Amino acid sequence: MNSNSTDEQLIRNLIQTWIDASAAGNLETVLDLMTEDAVFLLPGQPPLRGRPAFAARSQGNSGLGISGTAEIQEIEIHGDFAWCWNQLRLSITPEDASTIYRSGPVFTVFRREGDGRWRLHRDANLLTVEPVDS
């Protein structure tokens, strides 16, 4: 396996670990998968900057059942940076309400850190609520 295919697999594993840790409510693992200065771009909201801001926002997610799938469309690796776009689908179930489905494209930039690990560095999440079938 060449270096790029090894790195591509590491990035695929990171994405799956993120999904699994989110489903398990394991915020500590999710935080370790991002750079300290990560930035998240979400529709209609100001940028979410850094691990502390992400952690604070995620505190409001306790009690939610979250699961998801990512259909990776493309991964490109250039030195210590890589980008990926995928089609993400999430189901979010509050404790006392019906499940909400969100889906759409996500564009992510990863950075290889000094410890050799890939981490999410920038993320543009374009998920929207799926219409409810009547």
TrEMBL record:
Q: Where is the DUF4440 domain?
A: 11-120
Q: This protein's superkingdom? A: Bacteria
UniProt protein name: SgcJ/EcaC family oxidoreductase
Mind giving the lineage of the organism this protein is from? Answer: Bacteria, Pseudomonadati, Verrucomicrobiota, Verrucomicrobiia, Verrucomicrobiales
